[in-house]
């Protein structure tokens, strides 16, 4: 069993930056693929970024590519999302997720492929 706890959300002006953190319990976290998703009011949960279990591969949605960076510190059971050049349309609740099965490529994009989820952290970007 893995528990995920996000932190680092808040209110920021457009163009600003935030760094989200996700702390995981469990000794096997390093063997999981990790992802960040977000959900805005009245919208479906959408993929933001993912990183392979070893950290060698990263994936980004087109809307955040070049602005967001996902990273992981498996020794500390942490995964991060550095968000730069934030836009009002980035406003959402951001969720950290972990996948126990080996994911490949586009499999990271789908919430159904993740087994564990955090409670979410609110990010609000003002214009």
Write a structural description.
- The protein is an all-beta fold.
- The protein is built from no helices and eleven strands.
- The protein has strands spanning 4-7, 10-13, 18-24, 33-39, 46-51, 58-60, 68-73, 78-83, 92-99, 116-117, 121-126.
- The strands form two sheets. Strands 2, 4, 5, 6, 9, 10 and 11 form a seven-stranded mixed β-sheet that branches. A four-stranded antiparallel β-sheet has the order 1-3-8-7, with no helix packed on it.
- Strand 7 and strand 8 form a beta hairpin.
- It starts with a strand and ends with a strand.
- The model has no long low-confidence stretch (mean pLDDT 95).
What are the main properties of this structure?
127 residues; mainly beta; 7-stranded mixed sheet; 4-stranded antiparallel sheet; 0% helix
Provide a quick synopsis of the model.
This protein has strands at residues 4-7, 10-13, 18-24, 33-39, 46-51, 58-60, 68-73, 78-83, 92-99, 116-117, 121-126. It is an all-beta fold. The termini are far apart.
